[in-house]
Design a protein that fits this description.
Chain lengths: 261, 261
């Protein structure tokens, strides 16, 4: 029923990674897509508080894109109090401002704190509310801090799995060491794609004329490799004009050399 | 058919915000959920290259949660070249390593670069491939840099709208100034040290009266520990007034109970 036989390897389970707690989720599909989003960011512990349609539901497994291990291990709880009883720190996602006095964090700030707590050996959890209503006041009173997503204030509508994905992504990024690789900018103007295409057409035309691309099988790959070369760095409009001149002069030299008279 | 009459106000359209280019998208629903994810992060310009099922498709509008303005303004192109011709910089999302020489960036690094390019007055775009196959080699040869998401390497499966959401989120976060951690106090305010001292004096006085602090040797440490507890978070002026009331009422009950007459 739950499709336990299938599922993907989702990698090692991080020690003290935060528990995702879905409070009164309505659609089983959303529990499945939540599991998928959790797997993306290396979260593995899922708890459900009073899921509307009961549990388990095979639709969750179908919607999880193979994140079965998470669903197989999910636990069901009657109340938020029960779901958080063994945790040391609890956060609650909250899209709207409420009339309460509470610490509010960004997902990025929250992820840094969750990593710090995990390093201390503390167990943490994040509450996500039901699809429409969100968490109620009693739910939020169970949390130490709120997490509010600083997104477009004119369009905050995030579905459940997307809200989970943002937190899972930030959890992963909080310890990710991949270099961002920012490129340096030049003083001159970067060429447009139209200008680049114009140059590549000129070069290909001349290479066809001189026979450089006569191998029909290799031709597409060779042209593509030249395209890669000229796309690698920031080619400027000035450099392209220079290269037009280079190609023209090379071709003219060859042509005049060919005329034996 | 396209539901133009409905739709939400999605806020102002950012100048030079990146164009999202869906290359050969298969399901119209995914175009709709992509528009929703774009609106979340303040992206507004959508282009479709050879959408499999044609365009427009009402299913996209239904799936967009009100991001109609984006879909209404979307343009359709026969080729990637046509879709990027007026852009100065193009990035391509690519989950898998390819055998090409190309700059690879994280979504965060890419978002920072896109912001920088926009500030220079340059027009940018981000290519997203079809749901299953992803971008092909010819598509990627049209991009200046690749964007690879540093997610769980054992579970990279992201759907189209989720991939767009991560980029839109990073685009938004790249200029967001929200403090990572802030106390939301609403109408009240954080208590001053004088107000805290006043409360601690009240508490200590009552604890002396009831004999809780009768051990003279332990008394300083016990008072200090209570001070640490109330100093740990930001206590508000409103909360201190409530606690004054709590102490007074608890003490009064004890006193009246003690008077046997």
């Amino acid at each position: 029923m739950t499709g336990r036989e299938g599922g993907a390897d989702i990698g090692p389970i991080g020690e003290n990674s935060p528990v995702v707690i879905l409070v009164r989720p309505q659609l089983a599909e959303n529990v499945g897509t939540t599991a998928r989003a959790m797997a993306n960011g290396g979260l593995f512990h899922l708890r459900l508080v009073a899921p509307r349609d009961g549990w388990p539901q095979s639709r969750a497994w179908y919607a999880s894109s193979g994140a079965h291990r998470i669903l197989d291990a999910a636990t069901v709880h009657d109340t938020v109090d029960d779901a958080v009883a063994d945790l040391h720190r609890v956060m609650a996602t909250c899209p709207r401002p409420r009339h309460i006095v509470k610490t509010v964090m960004t997902p990025r700030g929250a992820a840094a704190e969750l990593r710090a707590r995990a390093a201390q050996g503390l167990r943490t959890g994040i509450l996500f509310g039901p699809e429409r209503a969100g968490l109620d006041n009693e739910d939020m009173a169970r949390a130490d801090t709120l997490v509010r997503y600083p997104l477009n204030p004119d369009f905050m509508s995030l579905n459940l799995a997307q809200a989970v994905l943002v937190m899972a992504y930030e959890w992963w990024m909080a310890e990710d060491t991949t270099a961002p690789r920012v490129l340096m900018t030049n003083e001159t103007r970067v060429a447009t794609k139209g200008e680049l295409e114009n140059f590549l057409s000129h070069l290909t035309r001349e290479l066809d004329a001189c026979g450089f691309l006569r191998n029909e099988q290799k031709r597409p790959g060779m042209v593509r490799n030249l395209r890669h070369l000229f796309q690698r760095g920031d080619v400027t409009e000035q450099e392209l004009r220079t290269m037009h001149g280079v190609i023209t002069e090379l071709a003219r030299g060859r042509k005049s050399g060919q005329t034996p008279g």
